[in-house]
């Protein structure tokens, strides 16, 4: 496969997975343990995004912190997300080909995820996800004249985005954590005033790639292990995550770049209103992105 094509696929993988929990950008070696830098991540992000959300929330956790086992983690967190129904999120990725800041809201139900989000940085864009269809505006896409949105059918296995579209559903990411290679309770920390349990989860790359249904040309560039830190509150809702990866040089060199993805989830139970873009502003395809 041409390197430019691979780079596009790596960027697409990073974008879609960043919407939920982590970047699916791929790289070289990464430690399977949490890094020391993560200890400051719970205080480094701004609280401004919280102030922008609605008052119709169920933000505070009502339960006491209880340590989850590796076997309990996946079903407990998924059940908590389904019970919450909706949430707001803010995610920052630094380094690598997909450095960006993203914020939005998502609604999670039996039919999957509905979402609206916007990002800044090199991949500045707006995203709407409704009924297994993603609408993307921006990102420097060469859209036809008069069109401002690209429509992507996430059920199309032949589509660049469709190949990894299921990563927009949090259940697929957590599915990769169902049988972790390593699972550790690091300690108890407060995230935005909420007590949380801080876990370090290490996943086998083959399991991770299979759960996210990543294309083979992407997964083969991934490290042998995927490590992620998760902060979970007393209601077993995810409050924060952090992941570091070493990304390959897309120009063909041997140098790698560290990519750090950090995100927060808040305003659980917030009202979410997502509207489909006007039909006359939507393009069904863009050359080179199918």
Automatic annotation (TrEMBL):
Q: Per its UniProt record, what SUPFAM superfamilies does this chain match?
A: Prokaryotic lipoproteins and lipoprotein localization factors
Cleavable signal peptide? 1-27
- State the residue spans of region: Disordered: 24-69
Q: Where is the composition biased (Acidic residues)?
A: 48-69
| Record-linked PROSITE patterns | PROKAR_LIPOPROTEIN
Under which name does UniProt file this protein?
LppX_LprAFG lipoprotein
Q: Which UniProt keywords apply?
A: Signal
Q: Which InterPro entries match?
A: LolA/LolB/LppX (IPR029046)
This chain's source organism reads Nocardioides currus
Chain intervals with Low complexity compositional bias:
35-47
């Amino acid at each position: 496969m041409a390197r430019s094509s691979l780079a596009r696929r790596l960027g697409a993988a990073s974008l879609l997975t960043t919407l939920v929990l982590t970047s699916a950008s791929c790289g070289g070696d990464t430690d399977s343990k949490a890094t020391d830098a993560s200890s400051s991540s719970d205080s480094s992000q701004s609280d401004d995004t919280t102030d922008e959300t609605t008052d119709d929330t169920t933000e505070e956790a009502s339960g006491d912190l209880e340590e989850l086992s590796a076997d309990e983690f996946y079903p407990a967190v998924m059940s908590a997300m389904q019970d919450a129904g909706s949430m707001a999120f803010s995610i920052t990725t630094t380094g690598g080909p997909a450095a960006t800041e993203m914020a939005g809201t998502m609604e999670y139900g039996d039919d999957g995820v509905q979402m609206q989000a916007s990002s800044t940085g090199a991949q500045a864009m707006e995203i709407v996800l409704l009924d297994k269809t993603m609408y993307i505006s921006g990102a420097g896409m060469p859209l036809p004249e008069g069109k401002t949105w690209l429509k992507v059918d996430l059920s199309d296995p032949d589509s660049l985005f469709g190949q990894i579209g299921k990563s927009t559903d949090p259940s697929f990411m957590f599915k990769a954590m169902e049988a972790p290679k390593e699972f550790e309770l690091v300690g108890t920390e407060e995230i935005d005033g909420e007590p949380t349990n801080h876990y370090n989860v290490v996943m086998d790359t083959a399991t991770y790639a299979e759960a996210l249904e990543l294309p083979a040309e992407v997964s083969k560039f991934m490290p042998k292990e995927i490590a992620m830190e998760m902060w979970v509150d007393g209601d077993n809702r995810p409050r924060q995550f952090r992941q570091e990866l070493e990304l390959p040089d897309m120009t063909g060199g041997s140098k790698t770049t560290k990519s750090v993805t950090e995100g927060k989830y808040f305003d659980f139970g917030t009202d979410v209103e997502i509207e489909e873009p006007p039909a006359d502003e939507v393009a069904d395809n863009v050359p080179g992105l199918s």
